[in-house]
Amino acid sequence: MQKKIYVLDASAIIGGFYSKSYANFTTSGAILEIKDLKSKILLQSALENGHIKVDEPDPEDTEEINQIITSSGDILRLSDVDRGIVALAFKFKRNGFKPIVVTDDYSMQNTLKTIRIDYQSVLTPGIKEIINWVKICKGCKKRYPSDYKFEECEICGSPVFRKRVKAVK
After folding, report:
1. Are 30 and 85 contacting, i.e. CB atoms less than 8 angstroms apart?
2. Which residues pair with 129 in a beta bridge?
3. Domain-wise residue ranges, the chain
4. Higher confidence at residue 103 or residue 144?
5. Nearest one of 102, 123, 134 to 6, comparing CA atoms
């Protein structure tokens, strides 16, 4: 049986979440996102008491996640810190653990659902389905990959917009 662990993003820490029954991990990047004094004090106490530990993803896990989110279109919506949290959970899964990521970030939840890592929300209901993203020209309707970097169509010069599409299972 896989050992359950929790991977916490900043929203989990700000919301005061950590498990007393299982190990809790976060990244140094998530810690830097904690700005309010109350959350900083609670985090410092949890770190000192060993309730939350800091770990970082391996480079190969980060690269794998970057490929996945480029394909799904979430690359434009996930910060480096978000990617680090997802990659850390991916690392734990690869090493035989059962990670549960605690986050209110819908793009992170979308990515986690895609890679079959469990998640739970702190304050929001969470996502119900996987969403992918494409870019479409307003003029000629040409479809571009989600990581298309330009704001104008290479064919007709019209603006390009991002559109969500349901993922095919």
Report:
1. yes
2. none
3. 3-120, 131-166
4. 103
5. 102
Pull the structure tokens for residue 33: 């996102």
Phi-psi region of 157 (alpha: psi -120 to 50; beta: other; left: phi over 0): left
Fold of 3-120: Rossmann fold (3.40.50)
Please give the model's pTM, rounded to 2 decimal places.
0.74
pLDDT band at 34 (very low <50, low <70, confident <90, very high): very high
